[in-house]
Specification:
The complex is a heterodimer of chains A (about 290) and B (about 280). The radius of gyration of chain A is 27 Å and the shape is flat. With about 290 residues, chain A is mainly α. In chain A, about 75% of the residues lie in helices and about 0% in strands. Chain A has 13 helices and no strands. In chain A, helix 1 packs across helix 12, helix 3 packs across helix 12 and helix 4 runs antiparallel to helix 9. In chain B, about 75% of the residues lie in helices and about 0% in strands. In chain B, helix 2 crosses helix 13, helix 5 runs parallel beside helix 11 and helix 10 runs antiparallel to helix 13. In chain B, about 45% of the residues are buried. Classes of the chains: A mainly alpha (about 290), B mainly alpha (about 280). Chains A and B meet through helix 1, helix 4, helix 5, helix 6 and helix 7 of A and helix 1, helix 3, helix 4, helix 5 and helix 6 of B.
């Protein structure tokens, strides 16, 4: 049998060639279009962040300049320091960190066991519990804050970091349960069972085998809680009066404060979250995306 | 299964979160309605709800909230869909694109509001830009309580900028669950990009779209800090009214009435979406 390709009739060859070129060109055009749109969307996201960064690193008097210059003429920490030295900012910042840490620890301590149960056991009421958690995840903060304020006044913990931290724990809890559950699903149970056949107690098998493997995922869950708490303002402003967290303080004085204060405040609140999102970017889709739906 | 010997174990593990949810979710929710149906002396009545309904700000707040929601959600879904399709196309450096698109996920409502305030303020970036192009001779006062159009415009942009990331993340997760074979099959049959989106991707993305819509709508009913940062007292929304009645006017009962109203609207919207956009399992059920 001849393996030699029979020469194609000339007209057919050019037609096929043309078609291939057309498809090639269309694909190239498509690719170019996708990169173009992607760049535009990236600019839409990045430009406002760039602008606020320029504003907050301009000297205070430059902030009032008009027209503004896209490339900063002078970089200075003047506005940032002005904000940081304003009354109450540093204590509020410290409170925000404390609230976020308490919420992070509490939500993991309370939520992770439930996440583990959902991942590892088939038990009656499992679906009902899952449904309950799913239905509370998009809960209006506004609804919970006002009655909780009344309850916290009665309990004597109103206007403290505890009132805000307890509220933020409640907001983070459904997410923590769902995220930790998907983390534990991804850790093979066979490993834990193998440890048990080798003489570990169930608790020891969990602590020595599953927990270390689940740690990065659990850290991601904890970071979600931190960002949620760090950014949350409605509950914080309702549940405090003098013991404001940073966003609550900024919100309550916002309309009376000068522009450098506002811009530096926005940058202060923005910066930690941007860094944190960078560290958990690999988990965004796998945990957050799948869990929310 | 090894777990059989420990039949009680899962329940013990659930107890802490169930107790916490009962105290911090169920109880406040019930109490919220309790407070709404009491007057300021604590007697049962509809006085607080009537006070809310008859307040001059009430209809303005409701109208603004709904207007914002109706404008923001379609913009966000188009943007989020674009971003999600780009991520799914696996461009070079797709991790970087994802990080950039997801950045606003970590930005608070308040910070986003201030950022867009800095753009729209009189000596701000937008005026600089329009002046530079020669469109404006003098800076224009966009954020002026007399001009709700520009206030709403700025808030719509700020919220679309901030909260698109969460929808994108949900959609990307949804897209990743669509088998590649389906799209390749569509390619074999010569489907255009638009046909693939319309006939293959969108129908399969329905559950993700439904979730994202529900989540985004519930959050839109609570829009708060963005409005205050951009419009000050120039515009009001439902959550801002709840805050005003609680903080400035010290009337917890009217504030709770607003909270109850937001809950009611959220539940109604959720039911509406479940009914309008049933996913396959729901349609079979």
């Amino acid at each position: 049998m001849s393996t030699e390709a029979r020469p194609m009739p000339a007209s057919l060859a050019t037609a096929a060639e043309l078609r291939r070129r057309r498809i090639g060109r269309r694909r190239l055009l498509n690719q170019g279009l996708i990169y173009g749109v992607a760049t535009l969307l990236a600019l839409w996201v990045l430009l406002p962040i760039y602008l606020i960064t320029v504003s907050s690193f301009s000297p205070r008097d430059v902030i009032f300049d008009y027209p503004k210059s896209l490339i900063p003429q002078e970089v200075s920490a003047d506005s940032i320091l002005f904000f940081a030295n304003s009354t109450g900012v540093i204590p509020a910042l410290w409170r925000s960190v404390q609230v976020a840490l308490v919420a992070l620890v509490l939500s993991l301590l309370i939520g992770a066991p439930a996440g583990y149960a959902l991942a590892r056991y088939a038990f009656r009421g499992r679906n009902a519990f899952r449904l309950l958690i799913v239905s509370t995840k998009a809960f209006p903060i506004v609804i919970l804050s006002i009655p909780l304020a009344v309850a916290f006044i009665q309990a004597g913990i109103y206007d403290s970091i505890w009132s805000v931290a307890l509220m933020h724990t409640a907001l983070a809890l459904p997410f923590t349960v769902l995220i930790t559950s998907s983390v534990f699903v991804s850790v093979p149970r066979e490993l834990e069972e193998a440890a048990q056949t080798l003489g570990c107690t169930p608790l020891r098998a969990f602590l020595k085998v599953s927990l270390p493997l689940a740690l990065p995922g659990l850290a991601a869950a904890a970071i979600f809680t931190f960002v949620l708490s760090w950014n949350e303002v409605f509950a914080a402003v309702i549940l405090t009066l003098r013991e404001r967290t940073l966003p609550a303080l900024v919100l309550s004085v916002l309309t009376q404060s000068p522009l450098p204060f506002r811009f530096a405040a926005a940058f202060f609140m923005l910066a930690p979250s941007l860094i944190v999102i960078f560290f958990i970017r690999r988990y965004l889709i796998g945990l957050w995306g799948r869990v929310i739906k | 299964m090894r777990a059989r010997g420990l039949g009680w174990a899962p329940y013990v593990l659930l107890v802490p979160s169930l107790v916490y949810m009962a105290i911090f979710f169920a109880a406040p929710m019930i109490q919220s309605f309790g407070l709404a149906f009491q007057d300021s002396t604590g007697a049962w009545s509809t006085a607080s709800i009537e006070r809310m309904l008859n307040d001059a700000q009430f209809s303005r707040a409701l109208l603004t909230t709904v207007t914002l929601l109706v404008l923001i959600i379609p913009i966000q879904f188009v943007l989020a869909m674009g971003m999600a399709l780009i991520i799914n196309a696996r461009l070079k450096g797709s991790g970087l694109w994802l990080y950039v698109f997801a950045l606003p996920l970590g930005v608070s409502e308040l910070a986003a509001g201030i950022i867009w305030f800095s753009i729209f303020t009189e000596r701000g970036w937008l005026n600089t830009f329009l002046g530079g192009l020669g469109i404006l001779e003098r800076p224009y006062v966009f954020l002026n309580p007399q001009e709700p159009f520009w206030l709403i415009f700025a808030i719509v942009l700020a919220e679309s900028w901030r909260a698109t990331a969460i929808i994108m993340i949900i959609l990307v997760a949804g897209l990743q669950s669509i088998p590649r074979d389906y799209l390749e099959a569509a390619d074999v049959f010569g489907a255009s990009t638009w046909q693939k989106i319309r006939r293959v991707i969108l129908p399969l993305l329905r559950p993700a779209l439904q979730t994202a819509l529900i989540l985004r709508t519930i959050l839109a009913f609570q829009v708060f800090a963005t409005v205050i940062a951009i419009a000050g007292r120039g515009l009001t929304v439902l959550a801002a009214e709840a805050y005003r009645w609680y903080g400035d006017l010290r009337d917890t009962n009217v504030a709770a009435s607003y909270a109850g109203l937001i809950l009611l609207l959220s539940v109604m919207a959720t039911i509406l979406y479940l009914w309008l956009l049933p996913t396959r399992e729901e349609r079979l059920a």
